[in-house]
């Protein structure tokens, strides 16, 4: 093989690798890569910071709402609510700063009976 042919082969290989990388970047950028089914069945409805390293969060998993405590040593399940009507993304609190976490928690709790 001559020197010119070897340079041409290397240039074509580099071009093919660049095209593969560009296609992967484009697919990722446009969101064409599919998401897994498990990720879509789990939603964070709201969270509230209790301290620098402690949080409470409401998570919806397969229609069941879970109140969990998050801390440096792990996650604790605090309460489980039965499946109910789903909260739309407009109603779901985006963060603990908008003040709707309390409203979401009250909506998720069953009505209390007076004693």
Q: How does this model look, in words?
A:
The protein has helices spanning 3-30, 37-40, 101-108, and strands at 42-49, 55-61, 64-71, 74-81. The chain is of the alpha+beta class. The protein has 2 domains: 1-34; 37-108, no CATH class. The chain has a 4-stranded antiparallel sheet with strand order 1-2-3-4. A hairpin with a 2-residue loop joins β3 and β4. Pfam families: FliO. It is found in: Cell membrane; Bacterial flagellum basal body. Residues 82-115 are annotated as: Disordered.
Give the arrangement of secondary structure elements:
Layout: H1 3-30, H2 37-40, E1 42-49, E2 55-61, E3 64-71, E4 74-81, H3 101-108
Antiparallel strand pairs: 1-2, 2-3, 3-4
GO biological process, one term: bacterial-type flagellum organization
Region (Disordered): 82-115
Biased composition (Polar residues): 83-99
Q: How many distinct beta strands?
A: 4
Elements, N to C (H/E): HHEEEEH
Terminal Cα separation, in Å? 93 Å
Number of domains: 2
Total of helices: 3
Classify the secondary structure makeup into a structural class: alpha+beta
Give me the Rg, rounded. Answer: 25 Å
Largest sheet strand order: 1-2-3-4
